[in-house]
Write a structure and sequence with these properties.
The chain is an alpha+beta fold and 206 residues long. The chain has helices spanning 17-29, 85-88, 113-130, 141-150, 187-193, 197-204; strands spanning 9-12, 55-61, 67-75, 99-107, 134-139, 156-157, 162-163, 176-183.
């Protein structure tokens, strides 16, 4: 997958309002919940479930300055990994320090997958900076397909899907997600071992 460095810019978002709207639009577009379940701002009904100080949003911007892909890194509270929604979907939630959740990953309908690739590089850099050990995620089928293209081997996706409605209010009962995880310290090495060194090189580039 050739990646142009000047195509997108990804950076932390001080105001997540636009990111939450893009996320809501993507969930409706993919049929995860009806538009009537969104807030008046166009946000998902659980947008404030995690206190804002534990949520760090990132956004990819195209050459015209438009926000086209978003995602967030969420940290635990004093109770550990079960304070992360994705961990609560796992049969055996991870223990120990350094567990964070990557979630809220969404892109505009006309944005290519490379915009998400830039997003994951920013999240990876942030995790390295913060000393994160393990990512947990809940991966819907559309994101699963994207991750298999942009981070093969870097994210392990569990084989058994679970119903998202048990954790996320308003989601249709038939919407499934796969628990997933990734080891931060071996993320790029795992991608390289999967035979995609150009993506590993891109993730590691400064």
């Amino acid at each position: 997958m050739p990646v142009r460095e000047d195509t997108y810019e990804c950076r932390p978002l001080s105001d997540p309002a636009a990111a939450k709207r893009l996320q809501g639009e993507a969930y409706v577009r993919h049929g995860h919940l009806p538009a009537s379940e969104l807030t008046s701002e166009g946000w998902l009904p659980w947008h404030d479930e995690i206190p804002a100080e534990r949520v760090h949003w990132f956004g990819s911007f195209d050459a015209a300055g438009m926000l086209v892909a978003v995602g967030r890194r969420m940290v635990t509270d004093s109770t550990g990994s079960l304070s992360l929604p994705a961990a609560r979907l796992m049969a055996a939630p991870p223990a120990g320090d350094g567990v964070v959740e990557l979630s809220g990953v969404a892109k505009a309908a006309d944005a290519p997958g490379v915009a998400t690739l830039h997003l994951f590089r920013a999240l990876y850099r942030e995790s390295l900076r913060c000393g994160d050990r393990l990512w947990v995620m809940s991966v819907v089928p559309s994101l699963r397909a994207t991750l298999e293209r942009i981070a093969p081997g870097g994210i392990t996706i569990g084989p058994d899907p679970v119903r998202m409605s048990g954790v996320y209010p308003g989601v249709r009962a038939d919407v499934l997600a796969y628990p997933a995880w990734g080891v931060v310290g071996t993320f790029t090495a795992s991608i390289r071992a999967a035979g995609v060194p150009e993506i590993a090189d891109f993730m590691e580039a400064r």
